[in-house]
Amino acid sequence: MCGIVGATAERRVAEILLEGLRRLEYRGYDSAGIAVLNDQGLQELRRVGKVQALAAAQEETGINGHVGIAHTRWATHGKVTKENAHPHVSSDTVAVVHNGIIENHEALRVRLQGLGYSFQSETDTEVICHLVHHELEKGHSLLDAVKATVKQLEGAYGTVIMDQREPGHLVIARSGSPLVIGLGIGENFVASDQLALLPVTREFMYLEEGDVASVTRTQIKVFDSNDKMVERQVHTSDLQYDAGGKGEYRHFMLKEIHEQPIAMRNTLEGRIDGDRIAIDAFGPQAEDIFKNIKHVQIIACGTSYHAGMVARYWLEQYAGVSCNVEIASEFRYRSSYVFPNSLFVTISQSGETADTLAALRLAKTLGYHASLTVCNVASSSMVRESDLAFLTKAGAEIGVASTKAFTTQLAGLLMLVAALGRANGVDASIEARISHALASLPNKLEEALNITAEIEALAEEFADKENSLFLGRGDQYPIAMEGALKLKEVSYIHAEAYAAGELKHGPLALIDAQMPVIVVAPNNELLEKLKSNVEEVRARGGIMYVFADKKAQFKSDDTMRVINLVHVDEIIAPILYTLPLQLLSYYVAIIKGTDVDQPRNLAKSVTVE
Ligand code: M6R
């Protein structure tokens, strides 16, 4: 979603702020802005478009200072305009950046207008700076003014505020939107994600829900939701990837697709020992908790939801536990039944997705036996708030389209299947099979990437297409769904996925020569059924692209292009078959000329409802 950076230092901070924004740009990117305090008071710059436009304006104007805040915006309230970009300013003295949504902004706006404040933007955020200004006018310090302000806010916020009367001072507050303080020597920083601050520090302090903090060059004071001064632990970041760079690749998405073998190696390292998986990869209490589990409830959004759908097939087939999977935004607003001895599992790359996090918080009130998150960010809210956590070690994922996070989630979920199977007395041969299949994965993924050139050529055939259909059966059905999501998200071609057996119940009417049909073929007892579905499409003049194991014996002809994939144990086939679909989406997007890493209207981490 939107990105926040702030800095207070002896040196001038504009370049630190701009570099931080560049690193956060993948989260929200319709406009950007910066505000600094210097001898001339408060100066701000805002631009519609990429951070580069803002950087050029900063260079031109030379605006700089020893304290400042900056923001990349992904519009929620109000159009994409310079006026709606952050920072917002009240009375030329108070500047605010904000992530999240202030739900009672309309009532506050009316009240503030009554007090004589005039609004320059359509945003919900602008109420924050006027409220803080109003509190300052009562004689409060900046810290107390912010504390008084947040008491009046309903909704979600991660916000950073500065005031001309207290130069060198940033006050920050968190409720529902993450904020981290980066500790320097004689200088301190704040951001919505540690990635923004990696060029200046490796030492981080994460704010908890309800915290308000005062940050100067030399001092940090944190107050919890009861206004009690508290110590928050300092963590040293071990981020291994140069998250800021694309290396030899043209886009982050391509880099991240190609990082999958190493991401998988890192995720599995030390977690498989011969025929067994290491249950403590889920946390020290995992073994005891898993013994009691008879049902799994999985909650996630988007790509992570697709990982959950694959896990359902696996859990019921191999672990002997029942499983339900639901989209977080649906789950959180309905009354659901809690099965006895249920494990509540969230899956999330970021660990901050608002709907999934809200579902986790709700689940804690509903009587689940325990909660587990499968997550890529160790410091995230979901990891901190769950009883158990499996950390995927995919490294920072910058491209909006989730790639390596998905395949490593699947590996973690397959380990969960083995762990729950063992706890449930399932034959040890299943765990051994899973362990060996997983151990083979990094090399198999490397081999699978060898078809990159073939897929690049294939992508040409999609250049003039407006619609597409993805088909799969069994645990490859969610992979078809993921392929469709990836294609629509980065190439803007309309894509739908169906369980192949469902074709005759409606979607068959869509088939003609203009509708490419992408088929993900399983190599199991469902293969023959799928072949019949393929014939149904062929008989209606459809053009098919079939991703299949050589042994499946599909043959290319006028109506069908077959792309053979390396042979693997069918248990890990959903992971492997994801790669060609990611590559296809990427290369189609390149032909279409879209903004691959930052597709229109999307944001990386969806921290608002
Ligand atoms: O961070 P999360 O995994 O919780 O994010 C969930 C979705 O927003 C995310 O997977 C989204 O669907 C992907 N960007 C799609 O590629």
What's the structural blueprint in terms of helices and strands?
Elements: E1 3-8, H1 14-24, E2 31-38, E3 41-48, H2 51-61, E4 67-73, E5 88-90, E6 94-99, H3 105-114, H4 126-137, H5 142-150, E7 157-163, E8 170-175, E9 180-183, E10 188-191, E11 203-206, E12 212-215, E13 220-223, E14 229-230, E15 234-236, H6 252-258, H7 260-268, E16 272-273, E17 276-277, H8 286-290, E18 295-300, H9 302-319, E19 322-327, H10 328-331, E20 342-348, H11 354-363, E21 370-375, H12 381-385, E22 388-391, H13 404-423, H14 428-448, H15 452-459, E23 467-472, H16 477-491, E24 494-499, E25 516-520, H17 527-538, E26 543-549, E27 560-565, H18 573-592
Parallel strand pairs: 18-19, 18-20, 20-21, 21-22, 23-24, 23-25, 25-26, 26-27
Antiparallel strand pairs: 1-4, 1-10, 2-3, 2-4, 5-6, 6-7, 7-8, 8-12, 9-10, 9-11, 11-15, 12-13, 13-14, 16-17
Helix pairs in contact: 1-2, 3-4, 4-5, 7-13, 7-14, 9-13, 9-16, 13-14, 13-18, 14-18, 15-18, 16-18
The protein binds 5-amino-5-deoxy-1-O-phosphono-D-mannitol.
